[in-house]
DNA sequence: ATCCTATGTTGGACGGTGCC
DNA sequence: GGCACCGTCCAACATAGGAT
């Protein structure tokens, strides 16, 4: 499936693109492109990969990514079932860094905007009131035409550049080392892990998908994701378990065994190392919100 | 919660291959 | 030749799962 999320064909005659997505699931391909991207999820749940960040996404999730930052909004597995009625809906805006023209961007008045664009190279998750306002404005921009839509995008970027309500997604140490030719291989790996993380997955079988030996693949994977294979797998499993604990109100043991863990002791250990809380504490903290 | 241990994973050192 | 990429070997380390 090719959707607007994968390609970003901004026609040479246009300053930017804003479009609504409404599909059975979001584009399942890990990829990157030279455009900035502002993406809000309106409907759907899954796991969001941005650089070396792995987090769950749900409606309202608003993320701003910079040029060539690899990303993927992977819908949950139930979205890929043939007769599923589930929908993945969102609004995405793409623009180039020269969208305002370098003449303006280099001036003092655009200082905070330049800072924003630098931060976006790590990926920004927009939070709180800023997120709520930007989501409204993104919805609004779809109904605008001509220069009015450009003004609205400038308003959005201005609001983003003035806000402190954000989290940086990728870690300081992350930089994209992927080449275009790597994305097919990494997508096979991603697909396999996302389809099978609830069972045992061995490095060896994933390495085979990449046509590499386990040793080479281990190094290759770490160099491109900034995580070891085990860390990566563990974060996906814990993300899934967190969802089960909160959204399905499952018991800790149930969530553990349905997320690819085979012992509670290991599950508790991994959970705490990622969330800083035990599964029970995490569940209680959420229910008190 | 903590410890123990078999097993799996990681990454350094080094070498081979293909490409520019 | 220089470089990128990957394989092999192997020691060190990390982890999973079981025992207490």
In short:
The protein has helices spanning 102-105, 111-119, 128-141, 146-162, 180-196, 203-209, 214-225, 229-247, 252-257, 264-275, 279-287, and strands at residues 16-23, 36-43, 46-50, 53-57, 62-65, 71-75, 88-95, 124-126, 166-168. With 289 residues, it is an alpha+beta fold. The protein folds into two domains: 16-168, Regulatory protein AraC (Jelly Rolls), CATH 2.60.120.280; 197-287, Orthogonal Bundle (Arc Repressor Mutant, subunit A), CATH 1.10.10.
Properties at a glance:
289 residues; alpha+beta; Jelly Rolls; Arc Repressor Mutant, subunit A; 2 domains; six-stranded antiparallel β-sheet; three-stranded antiparallel β-sheet; 9 strands; 44% helix; globular; disordered N terminus; DNA-binding
């Amino acid at each position: 499936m090719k959707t607007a999320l994968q390609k970003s064909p901004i026609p040479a005659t246009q300053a930017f693109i804003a479009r609504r997505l409404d599909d059975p699931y979001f584009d399942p391909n890990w990829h990157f492109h030279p455009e900035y991207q502002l993406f809000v999820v309106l409907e759907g749940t899954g796991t969001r990969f941005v650089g070396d960040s792995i987090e769950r996404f749900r409606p309202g999730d608003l993320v701003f990514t910079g040029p060539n930052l690899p990303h993927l909004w992977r819908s949950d597995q139930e979205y890929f079932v043939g007769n599923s009625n589930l929908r993945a809906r969102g609004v995405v805006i793409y623009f180039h860094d020269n969208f305002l023209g370098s003449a303006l961007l280099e001036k003092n008045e655009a200082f905070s905007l330049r800072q924003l664009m630098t931060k976006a190279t790590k990926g920004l998750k927009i939070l709180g009131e800023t997120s709520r306002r930007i989501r409204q404005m993104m919805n609004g921009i779809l109904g605008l035409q001509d220069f009015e839509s450009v003004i609205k995008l400038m308003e959005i970027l201005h609001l983003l550049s003035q806000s402190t309500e954000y989290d940086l997604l990728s870690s300081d140490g992350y930089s994209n080392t992927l080449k275009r030719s790597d994305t097919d291989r990494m997508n096979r790996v991603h697909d396999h892990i996302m389809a099978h993380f609830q069972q045992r997955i061995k490095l060896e079988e994933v390495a085979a998908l990449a046509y590499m030996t386990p040793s080479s693949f281990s190094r290759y994977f770490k160099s491109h994701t900034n995580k070891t294979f085990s860390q990566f797998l563990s974060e996906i499993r814990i993300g899934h378990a967190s969802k089960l604990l909160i959204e399905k109100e499952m018991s800790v043991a149930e969530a553990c065994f349905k997320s690819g863990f085979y012992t509670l002791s290991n599950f508790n250990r991994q959970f705490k190392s990622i969330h800083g809380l035990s599964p029970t504490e995490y569940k209680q903290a959420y229910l008190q919100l």
